[in-house]
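Self-study notes.
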Amino acid sequence: MADTPNQAEQAQQPTTQDGRREVKLRIDETQMQSAYANTFRTDGSGDELIIDFGVNRSVPGRNDEMVFTVRQQVILNWRGAKRLALNLSNLIRQYEEHYGEIDANPRVRGNKNGPAATEE
C-alpha cells in the first residue's frame, strides 16, 4: 500500500533524537501590544493561572494609600504557567549574574525598588 501524501511529508520532516517532529515557529508581531507594569497579582483555579498586570500609583495627599490600576490580564493553563516560570527564572538568573542581585522585597517607602503594598 502506498504512503499517503501526509505520511510522505511527515517522513521527510526532521526529527529530534527522541523521535519528536521538529516544527519551525514563525512569530507574527503585527498585532502585538506592549504595556508597562510595575506590579501584578495572581489567582488560580484547578485549570488555569490568572495574572493581572498593572501600575501602583500613590494617591495625591495620602502617604498611606496606593492605587493598583489593572491594565492587562493574562490567563494561562498550568503547563504554560510552568514554562513561563522556568523561562523567567532563567532570565532573572542571567540578569543577576550580569548586574547583581535584585531586591524583590522592598520594605520601606522610598526604597529604590518602591514601597511595600498590602491588598485590601
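Second protein, same conventions, sequence then structure:
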Amino acid sequence: MLPSKLKNALPLESANSLVIQHGFEPHLVLYPLPEWQKFYSKIMALNEFNEEHRILQRNFMRSSGEVELDSAGRLLIPKSMQKYAQVDKDVTVIGVGNRIEIWNPTLYDQAIIKSSSQLSHMVAKHMGKDKADSSQMALF
C-alpha cells in the first residue's frame, strides 16, 4: 500500500497511474506518468543506429511497466519485479524527489549510509564547493 502522504503528492492528472521499473540496485522505482514521460523522451531520442544506444533503450524499456493504484492506494507488483527486488509482504517505501522507491527492508538497510562522517563526506564531495578551486577567492 502506498502511504497516503506519497499518494497525495502525486500529480492529479496521473494520481492512479504510475510506471514501475527496476532500480539500479535491487529495488523498484515508481514514477508518476509526467516524470516517466521525461525519461522516455530522452531514451527514445537516442540514435537507434548506435549499438550502445539501442542496448540502453532495450534494457531501459524491458524493465518497466504501467501499474494502477486502487482506491485504497494498493498496487499489484508483477511477479518478475517482486523477484528482482526480493520483495514479499514487508516492504520499505520511500519518496525520493520525483520518484518512489520500493525496497526489501533488509536490502534497504544495507544500502543506506549509517555513518554521519561518510554521509558528510559524500555531501561535501557532490554538493559542496571545492576548496582547492583557485578561482574561488577565500575571505578567511
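Instructor comment on the second fold: Residues 17 and 77 are 13 Å apart (CA to CA).
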